[in-house]
Amino acid sequence: MTEFSRRGVIGGGAALAGGLAMLANTAAAQSSGEAAATLPPEEILGKSAPFRSFRFPLGSITAQKQYPGGWGKEVNAQNFPSSVAFAGVLMELKPGGLRELHWHANAAEWAYVIDGNCRITVIDPSGKSEVLTLSAGDVWFFPRGHGHSIEGLGPNGTTFVLVFNDGTFSEFATFSITDWFAHTPLDVLAKNLGVPVSTFADFPKQEAYISLGAVPGPIPWPPAPGTLDTPPLTHGYHLLAQEPRTYGGGTIRLVSQKEFPISDSMAGALITLKPGALREMHWHPNADEWQLYLAGTGQMTVFGSAGRATTDRFGKYDVGYAPRGCGHYIENVGDDELQLLIVLNSGTYEEISVTQWLASNPKSLLANNFSVPETAFDGIPKGEVFITG
Questions:
Q1: Which helix (H) or strand (E) holds 75?
Q2: Other C-beta atoms within 10 Å of 92: how many?
Q3: Active site (catalytic) residues
């Protein structure tokens, strides 16, 4: 056993989970008009049928929203029907670029800083607030409904990925403060904030989304007396500073609720695979897995029961997806190190690996299962491998 949580397996559980996941995918496809990929329920739950792709080329699509202070482009169930449980946004902010004050009504936000430096602000329902400066390799988490903002810092701004635990989420339909102010009578704003109506003469007449202003200076330290009212749990975590778990073929840095207590509904990991290495065959009994490939060339195969499996190849900023309960594995098929970010829609990390499963059973049972001699299993690992060299 490792520090990762384990759960027992009931025969057929993975197959059923795969079938239910495909039912959800079918519904998403129907709602988005993708009739060609829709599978009848009898095929999903029993008969062999083709799998849809679990890859989306987020990096190669044209930026959907561009502003003076930066840009953002998204993937969700509308343009990637397999991603029923997640939406993602790749975003870049220039120095001084501000993703304005806003909140999300239907999803929590888990983010990873890919490059550069940024500053986040957040307020919770109790009125406690936090301001953090984060850099490449850091993670933040905003629970659903918490007001927040993101600023690009010097010298080069920042690039980051936002992941939301709802496939129907759209970054471009969030609740922004400029949008709300622009659709509120000026006398109401004046009454609410206790200032003259003239105060709002030059306020934006529509949503700003990403604005561009001066690069903010350093956060004062120590803070001025009476200005600090921080929440008991921080919203930031320095993932790249974590000592990785090292295997023959690569490394993993895991951030679950255990390491990052506020992140109660999402967990993530940064995985590296050496050329030729394999992230072993496994599945997650409690969560779907959303992936962003950061560097190198990878290949993932997803198994969904009933004779269905599909293999896709991934490059930089491609998104991958493995539905809950579906078996999958990832290979580095390139000449360089593969860097991969995964996000799960549970604060608890759970997995069941094929090597550990086999090792937990008597050889006589395995021999009967596969109709081969017991000696066929003499060389298998005695426990979980996680990453092979």
A1: strand 70-75
A2: 22
A3: 99, 102, 104, 109, 148, 171
Total of domains in the chain:
2
- Two tokens, residue 59: 């990096």
Give yes or no for a contact between 289 and 31, defined as CB atoms under 8 angstroms apart.
no
Q: How confident is the model at residue 15 (pLDDT cuts 50, 70, 90)?
A: very low
Least confident interval from 86-90, 105-109, 306-310: 306-310
* Inter-residue contact 273 to 117 (CB < 8 Å): no
Report the C-alpha gap between 288 and 305 in whole angstroms. 16
- 76 lies in a domain? yes
Q: What is the DSSP string of 13-30?
A: HHHHHHHHHHHHHHHHHH
Residue indicated by tokens 């049972």: 365
Would residue 163 count as lying in a domain? yes
- Length of the chain measured in residues: 389
- List the domain range (segments joined by +) for residue 381: 13-55+241-388
8: in domain: no
CATH number at residue 211: 2.60.120.10
For residue 81, give the amino acid letter: P
Calpha distance 380→194 (Å, rounded): 72
- Tell me: the pLDDT tens digits for 157-194? 999 999 999 999 998 889 999 999 999 999 999 999 99
CA distance 183 to 203: 12
Kindly report the pTM of this predicted structure: 0.87
Question: What's the angle, vertex CA 119, arms to CA 293 and CA 234, rounded to 5?
Answer: 85
Q: Determine which helix (DSSP H) or strand (DSSP E) holds 313, and give its type and residue range.
A: strand 309-314
Considering the domain architecture, whether residues 288 and 204 belong to the same structural domain is answered as no
Based on the domain organization, do 46 and 66 belong to the same domain? no
Q: Judging by beta carbons within 10 Å of its beta carbon (0-12, 13-18, 19+), is residue 246 exposed, middle or buried?
A: exposed
